[in-house]
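General statements about sequence and structure are easier to judge against a single worked case. No coordinates are needed to read the tokens, only the vocabulary itself. The sequence in question and its structure tokens are set out directly beneath this paragraph.
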Amino acid sequence: MLRSNKTLLMLALVAVACFVAEPAMADRLADAIAEAKPTGEPGYLGIPGGPQLNIIIGLVWAIWVGWIFSTVGAFGGIMAGVGHITIYGLGDYASSFGKGTKMNKVVTDSIRVSNQWLVGCSAALSSFNYFKAGRLVLPLGIALAIGSVAGSWLVPWLTAGKISLKAYLGYFGLFVLFLGCYLTYETTPKGQASKKAAKQAAEAFQKSVKEQQAGGTVDMAEMGVKVQKFTPTACEFTFFGVEFKFNPLIPVVGGFFIAAMASFLGVGGGFLLVPFLTSVAGLPMYLVAGTSALAVLIGMVNSIASYMLLKSTPVEWGLIGAELVGIVIGSIIGPKTSKFIPDKVLKYIFIVLAVYVGVRYTSKGFLGYSLVPPF
């Protein structure tokens, strides 16, 4: 509890520093302002006539973002995107400048990297908390992270300043919708037929949680992940007495493609990592969130640096500061509550969010209007 309080205090100090800082005014933003010639009171990013953002809304929304990411290991970046694009209206604001304009693209890239700031913070806290609880497969997370480094640097370098908001929204939604459908298949008897180990481990974990709630003495961390063997081509570990194994080379390759796609979409990549970890690695959902968080963390650090250092992408530091405080709160609560949620319910949460977000942004990007209402 003391560590949590220290973390909250540290983030609060960071937020205060962010509140008094001016928005990043890179040459790229100055060029966009010169081209668009907006007028009015300075708002988002210091743009004349830009949206005036309420940081309290950002704080509250970020608590939800931190909780959902630290609970299912996904949708942190996507929910952050919903907040920035829809709740704050930055999507419509970028579109108002017209496709192909510098302002459209700089605001779009700002949304992408702002999403990643929130996910990176949640990933750092979630990785630490799940590792302490014995619910993070460290070799698997590291293998995914190694592959993610190249992917998370490559895409911002190739696409920053070249993607319009409309195209971004369409692709964003399409990939999320596809993965929601795939996870739905995995919940069917046929989809679960090859996941016997994951089901057995999830049942053993749930049984221990119930024993603990009934007053029994159960050392959950001691029964958590225990690595038995690790070589460049084979890794074996146990979780609540159930043995799992994988080839580390596969997540290295998978990590590259996942990080590349996540960096393009401006999200953490958890929505891609969750299907990978449940399908390819065959893990129960109780191990997915922590392992996903570690891989996401490395990708986010690289991608943020790439967007901001290589492509001079600006962010609104005052807003980011408030949101980081909310992320800390949500990310502390998530690991403490997720153990009480059945494994299958965690998957259903993922599926519902995936279908909703997928339909909303696919239709918004490719049709010009959303087929479902906002939150």
Summary: DSSP finds 15 helices and three strands in the chain. Residues 2-367 form one domain. The mean pLDDT is 81.
